Each structure stands twice: as structure tokens, then as C-alpha cells.
Amino acid sequence: MASRATVKLADVAREAGVSKGTASNVFSRPEVVRDEVREHVLATAKAMGYGGPSVQGRLLRAGKVNAIGVAAVEPMAYFFEDPWARALMAEISAVCDASGTGMALVSAKNQQKLVWNIQSALVDGFILLCVEGGEKLVELTRERHLPFVALALGVDDKSIPTIGIDNIAGASMAARHLAELGHRRFAVLGTEFSEGGAGLLTDEQVRSATFSTSRDRAIGYWRMLAEFGVAPESVPVYETQDVASIRAAVAAIFAAPEPPTAILAMSDRVALVAMEWLAEQGLRVPEDVSIVGFDGVKEAELSEPPLTTIVQPLAEIARQAVQAILQDAVPVERQSIPLTLAVRASTAKPKG
């Protein structure tokens, strides 16, 4: 008899004295097998330590597993802790639920296990989040020869199929809103421009940023403000990484002799942390300073005051991304979905 570790369906069939087809039916189509035969085969399988055919093998033979992988270069906690990622995952989950599709999360933070994580994921394709710094992630996904699409792409590689937004256009929309209210003194609270960076950036550091999402948003702010006579060099740009660096950046901004009357935040998360700091210092939003976020997460609606923000169409992004994988209809060119401005109570005309 074969060892328990290597028992196969053929071994069970031989031991039970039935054909392999009958043994297979016991596990896959039990209703077509007589009760006494089915019970005999199951008892034999249990005695031999055989738990049934490999689910993975069966699905792979069928050619489709009806599941998608969602991968990011961030730690696994990113999917649940970052407001933008959490909101996007909720929309992807809703689309998957509606079609009965499964979902697997893959983190590329551990480079040593990345190869295994990507190659072993039992999925029909991948949705990649924030590909900035994730060249290896793209390379391994391509090696699977499965459809994939990137969201929130942070690099300019046009060979990567992408469904995303126009960051320059969105940032321009935010800057125009504040400028038309009459603001002329600005500061930018940025997201990540380079790996591990934080603090005040020079013009050159902004334009040569590793991560193009932050770079493009800064360029969008600058271009629009220039149309209102505000020179880029008069608008300080601070890079932030975490809550501590956001708070430090806001403190530095308001330590200046003539602080800004308006803040352009590159994410709602950054804006909400800044608003907490401002409230602690007794500074009122929007009476003392207006602030505009970027993303349109649920928390922005519920903040006090509610946050004016650039709204990403996350539901539509999720729908197109999931359908691209399930229908093997990955876009050949980058797909850009329009943004909208949600004007709420965090912005107003400057004092005086």
C-alpha cells in the first residue's frame, strides 16, 4: 500500500476494488454512485489517509478559477489601514461579490517570498496597486502569463496596462478651486516622492521624484497657481511618509512668519491628519486656513469640518479592473477615468 503522504486516487480505487472512474465519481459526483459503493470507497480513502482530489489541480485543469489577485508593494496591513486602499478594496470586493468571484491579497513587501506569493496564487489574473517601486512585481506577474492591470500607477512605463486617473488634472482642479476663492499663499502637503524621504523639498527634488504620482500632483498645483500669478518657488512642498512626518510638516508650515491661507494635500489621509494638528493648535478650518484633499474616501465626508477633496471614481475603477481580468480584456493603452471636485466646508475665502 502507498504511504499516507503519497496516496493517490488510483491507489484508493485499487485498494477498494473499483475503477478509477468510480472512485473519482465518489468525490466529484457522489449522487451517481450506489450508497454501499460510495461508503466503501470513502472508508477505504479514510483508512489510507486520502482526503480527496486536489482542489488546486482540478481548478487549474478547468482553466479558470474564478478569482482575482490584488497585489501591492506595501505590507499586508496597507490593504486595511490606508483609507484610499481600504476604500478601493471595498469597491473591488463589491464587484467580486456581485459576480461570485473570489479574491486573494498578495503583499510584495517581503521580496524573499514575493516570487512564491505571485507564482502560487490561484487566480485568473492580477490587479496591481501602486506599482511605484514595484518593478519586480510587474515582472513576476508577467511571467505568470495571466492578464493583469495596474491601478494608481506611479511610473511612466506605457507597456504596463493601466486603469487610473490624471493626477495633473486632478491637482489643477484643487488649486483652481482655492485660487478662485482668492487664496494666494499656499503650501503643499505631499505624499511619498522617494523611498523613505520626508521634509521640505527643492524644486529639483520634486521634478526628479521617483514616484510620479506625487510629482504629477505637485506639477498640477504649480501650473494652475501660475495662471493666478503664484510662482512655484513661493509654494513650499513637504514630503510625508507617516502621521509623525505629516504633523512635523504642518508644524513647520505654520512656524513661518507668514503662514499660508490654504493647504493642498495630496491625499485625504494627509489632509485629515493635518486638520487634527490644526485643531489641537486652536487654528480653525476654514476660517484660519482652507484645505483640499485628494481621493474622496468616506472619512473625508465625516470629518469636522467635512473635507473638500478631489474624488476618485473608485467604483468605476474597480468595475473596469475586475472585468478586464475576468473577461481577459486588459486595455492596450492607459485608461484614464475623470475626476470630480467635491466642495465641502473645509474651504472658504481667506480672511480679510
Strand order of the largest sheet: 7-8-6-9-10-11-13
Helix-and-strand structural type = alpha/beta
Q: Would you report the number of β strands?
A: 13
Mean pLDDT over the full residue set: 89
Looking at the structure, the CATH topology of the largest domain is Rossmann fold
C-alpha termini separation: 91 Å
Low-confidence runs (pLDDT<50, min 5 residues)?
A: none
Under CATH, the homologous superfamily of the largest domain reads Response regulator
Give the SSE map.
Blueprint (H helix, E strand, L loop, with lengths): L8 H8 L3 H9 L6 H14 L6 H8 L4 E6 L5 H4 L1 H17 L2 E6 L3 H10 L5 E4 L5 H9 L4 E4 L11 E2 L2 H15 L4 E4 L9 E3 L1 H5 L4 H15 L10 E3 L3 H11 L8 E4 L2 H13 L9 E6 L2 H5 L5 E4 L2 H13 L8 E2 L3 E3 L10
Parallel strand pairs: 1-2, 1-3, 3-4, 5-12, 6-8, 6-9, 9-10, 10-11
Antiparallel strand pairs: 7-8, 11-13
Helix pairs in contact: 1-2, 1-3, 6-15, 7-8, 9-11, 12-13
Structural notes for this entry:
The chain is α/β, with parallel strands linked by helices. It has helices spanning 9-16, 20-28, 35-48, 55-62, 78-81, 83-99, 111-120, 135-143, 167-181, 203-207, 212-226, 243-253, 268-280, 298-302, 314-326, and strands at 67-72, 102-107, 126-129, 148-151, 163-164, 186-189, 199-201, 237-239, 262-265, 290-295, 308-311, 335-336, 340-342. Strand 10, helix 14 and strand 11 form a beta-alpha-beta unit. The N and C termini lie far apart (91 Å). The mean pLDDT is 89. The chain has three domains: 4-53, 434 Repressor (Amino-terminal Domain); 66-164, Rossmann fold (3-Layer(aba) Sandwich), CATH 3.40.50; 167-311, Response regulator (Rossmann fold, 3-Layer(aba) Sandwich).
